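re the bet — no i am not wrong, look at it urself. input seq straight from the record:
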Amino acid sequence: MRIPVEICGARLSAVCALSLILTTASYAHAQFGGAPPRTTPAEDEKVVAPPKLPDPEGATKLPKPDEVWIDKKNRRVIVDGYVSLREGFLEMLACLAGTKEHESILAVRSKAQTVHAALLAVGAKSGHPVQFRPKFAPPTGTEIDIELQWLDDKGEWQKARAEDWIRDSKTKKPMTQPWVFAGSGFWKDEQGKDFYMAESGDFICVSNFTTAMLDIPIESSQSNEGLLFEANTEKIPPLGTPVRIVLTPKLKEKK
């Protein structure tokens, strides 16, 4: 079975993209497999878990089990996850639950393909992932603003720019690079089945991956010796804290 529309590089109307989301959500969970979600950090880690976040007001919930909403009025996509790491070098801001929590601050309970389709629905356009040959070409696509929201131990809402949870490993200053909608890609197995490559966990990256859905538009190494970014520990709430990721495409206003 093939996905009805090739997502990467597609230029879909909002109506088509919304229709695609419903197909994608059910298809992705039936077809794309992957490790079962890891609902908590490792057993030897202390976890403080505030109450589950309430559904965002004015947003449309996509089919379960994905924790994804579309806020059509404000043209943004909302994804819920949790803090999976607070210290150490990073390859991404957010991965998919059950994949790369050891190198990602956040883990989300969603398929990457569902979020991709949701971003198309609110007007974002995918570009292309990083290219290393014949020479380096940075990832491209609509720039995506990322805000993080969570409840503190008093039940009060807090929010932060995603960049503030990440710092340059040399200067120790918050990351300044934006994220772009690179769009990942597809590969076919021997049976001809399509797989969306970001389902391996490369959801919102700070190291360049050819499989990334969101990436930063600079050269950023994946090698252990060359990792540019680390967790800004003092800014990040306790492990296990539910966190809402708000993705807002920076769209050009129509004349």
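see?? Residues 14-31 form the longest helix (18 residues). told u. also The two ends are 41 Å apart (CA to CA). so pay up
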